[in-house]
Here is the input.
Amino acid sequence: MHAWPASEVPALPDKGRDLRIHDTATDGLVTLDPGPVARIYVCGITPYDATHIGHAATYNAFDLVQRVWLDTKRQVHYVQNVTDVDDPLLERAQRDNVDWVALAEQETALFREDMTALRMLPPQQYIGAVEAIPGIVPLVERLRDAGAAYELEGDIYFSVESDPNFGKVSRLDAAAMRLLSAERGGDPDRPGKKNPLDPMLWMAAREGEPSWDGGSLGRGRPGWHIECVAIALDHLGMGFDIQGGGSNLAFPHHEMGASHAQALTGEFPMAKAYVHAGMVALHGEKMSKSKGNLVFVSTLRREGVDPAAIRLALLAHHYRADWEWTDQVLQDAVARLDRWRAAVSRPDGPPAETLVTEIREALANDLDAPAALVAVDRWAALQQERGGTDEGAPGVVSRAVDALLGVAL
Here is the structure.
């Protein structure tokens, strides 16, 4: 599966600071020192509907991570998956009487278009669950043969008790985990499981549903968590720098994935930091496909909204915060974009070197994009009030805003 084209990232003088970011597993800030190649895995979409603002906010956060690392003159190895076979996709295809493969391809293509328009840097590997199945099956077999997994009516389950570090990602107690498991795709009440929290690794073939050859596992399809583990281990290995996604993935997805990988390798941790973006609401409720309260990026683009304004609307909120999308949020972003573009369109302006430092410091401090925007606002206001004599300043600002914030002026 191919990703989307990369926009050029301007090179800035000197280099930025190392990233200090919030780690869910320790509930604190950690300073990451990735070495010459920074490794990041971000969980991708289940393509049964178009990209909504909540998706965009999550991928914007991890785009900023990449830009901070690139500004430190590192390379970035970024991997993202597509869960192109799963119950929600199959249910949507059945509801709409369409082929599930065609639906997945259509929505993945639209996702690529949205990411391109928003200038999100693409992953080096963009891997679908279906194409990962040949690598998933041996991992499930290894877990089963090692006693870390068991069969139940043809399905294969992972035993969470096989990982002594289970629970260290989300830091939740068993009762909270059980509630979230039921809400987020698990089956804690299924009779016969060794532990209600045990997640499925391999679902035996069901009549009328797609299935693949699973070798000694029999025909079936992979569980949700093992998909990401197989892709991450194959392309990044253990101990990569950031496992990322929305805050709703901390449990069960990232918790279970970490335990799968740790049981497979005997190493801990799977990732040096687990980083989670907040949820976006509409009309007082979290944006979700199940509720149908979605604002789609593609719809905004069709209505003529500049993608740079959409991106500025996202950047105006700290990535870890839960916030609400409103018409005013977008109007404010459009006005800010107009002010910035007017400011850099002049032939000279106030010196901009201090501004570049402010942007770098804000982003290195747990991706504080709102503080970075305020810094650019101050420069633009000075430009409007009294201008300046530095002929290179508008170009410096344009390049810095593009390189670090992903906004083309």
Notes: The domain at 305-405 is CATH 1.20.120.640 (Four Helix Bundle (Hemerythrin (Met), subunit A)).
